[in-house]
């Protein structure tokens, strides 16, 4: 509604829609009394005029003027004339020719038609114009044979791009119609949407090109997958056209996903027969990258999920189980970490896919580990091989499997399984391996490397269930290192002891720590002995150092009655008197097999210092009295056991440093042999260490250690049973077993426990319940 203000008694009229009001015209008198509303606006109903109240004068009038009767003929003529102008311009745009009328005039023409009430007619005319244009173009496509294959796709795509360009130009001309008419009419679309609907109706439906376009697009992508070069721009533009027309899913996506499923199913079944695991992994990875690029370039984001679900199902879920079982072990054997990582990543794309890999990984470790542990011929390198194998598997878990906790736990369980398939032997070999590395003669590793080796050895040690077997062998070897001064480093020994304490608890290392404590106490004891000897003016020749060991902390040694030289015997008696005086009630038991001596030997070619065992020193000193000794005479004079005497004479007469000569010559010592001093002995070193020939451990000696371990286990089982029953007072058989298994450091069979329970019942430590034989009571 146009409202005119009557200012200074003059009228202003809009000639386009309203009649003029002359000065002589008088309005009709009001039929009702004027009223002033809340805004100060005085309403005169009879004149339909508005007056603004004024405090300083009479009110001003706003008059709504009557509409002129419209001339229908002139109105129709105006529509025809104006539409002809618009139609010519539309055709010029569609023909890509220059438009003679300015955009401003065209815009005003549309505005005029809308104000004349011809918006609907104009909208319909425009829609018809677009429809006729599209029909004409489709007829030309049909006439030119562009209705199939790539030619059709190119033609439709060219039409689409040109049509959208024209539509945007038309929107700028019909902007008034679009914004002020169509937008307020719910039954009408915007001009752009109407244009898309028209394109859909004519091109896709009427001429039936919709389904063909979708099929051609799918065929083009399939050819691209087979290695053919595709027109990416054409695919992208065509797919965007389908998306704009809201038929992407209907005409393309559904068909595309079905075709992709069929393609990858066929490819997967074929490649399973043709490729090895490594090649197949790289092929699948390549396919994934291709599809990701395809999604980024021209596919809609909604297709990505469906497409990769199909690819994962056909190429991974269906075939990867075959390839994992067929090739995972080979990849692990060859430590192909990149391919293993690729396998892990691919299996992560499917549900429970990595469970297959975890199982195969554990099976490989068990199989390979059993071969390492159960082959006696590999005992010499077993620990090294296990450490290397563990390091490889750890690298595989951390690098290839992204530190997956479940796979890491599977690795630990597999190591725990195969290491304990051979009882006691791995524990023994680990103890001996550590002994070899901690000895002073070991030159293979620096201090840092030694620490690293011990750390890796501890990783294997963790999997041993019978840790008491390890303790028995480690304690024997540690005693030799400490007593014979063969330890590479006291710091390294204590660092190893700390690792064992952290791993197994203080109870495990109690005796080992007691051994170090005895060595420290012995240092102070020797100083006190020498001070007392000096205070009394007593001579101490030869010089003597004694290690006093606490029985029970150290390994058991069989006492030996050896006839040592008088000079040495006198020194030992002096120390015994000193110790007995200092600690009354204690008794010393000398272990000559562990003694060492430093002898000064004069040879024709020079004087040498010989660092030897006490047995070796006892034999060498015999030659001060005479030059030649028979084997039987040496045996009678020293009373050294034959097996020890054989090793002693062999080290002196048959080893690297031959301070004695044997007759007849040979590598082995016989009872008929005679021995003399080697007057031709020479060496560039002044101090020479003559190592005792190490006798190989016999089956009987190993059995003896195992018997000691078994006996100790019986004591531990009995102690754990009594300790548990004393605390709990009453327990069922199953509950007692569970408590026992949680306390012991070694594997125990239920049958053995049952035997020990029966023994404790006989000794009145516990009783069975009268009503329930599976329940036990503690006897206070």
From TrEMBL:
UniProt-listed InterPro entries: Cullin, Cullin-like_AB, Cullin_CS, Cullin_homology, Cullin_homology_sf, Cullin_N, Cullin_neddylation_domain, Cullin_repeat-like_dom_sf
Family: Belongs to the cullin family.
GO CC aspect terms: Cul4A-RING E3 ubiquitin ligase complex; nucleus
Source organism: Mesorhabditis belari
GO molecular function terms attached to this record: ubiquitin protein ligase binding
Domain Cullin family profile, chain residue ranges per copy: 425-653
Protein name: Cullin-4
Compositionally biased region (Basic and acidic residues): 26-38
Pathway: Protein modification; protein ubiquitination
Chain spans, region Disordered: 1-38
Entry keyword set: DNA damage, DNA repair, Isopeptide bond, Phosphoprotein, Ubl conjugation, Ubl conjugation pathway
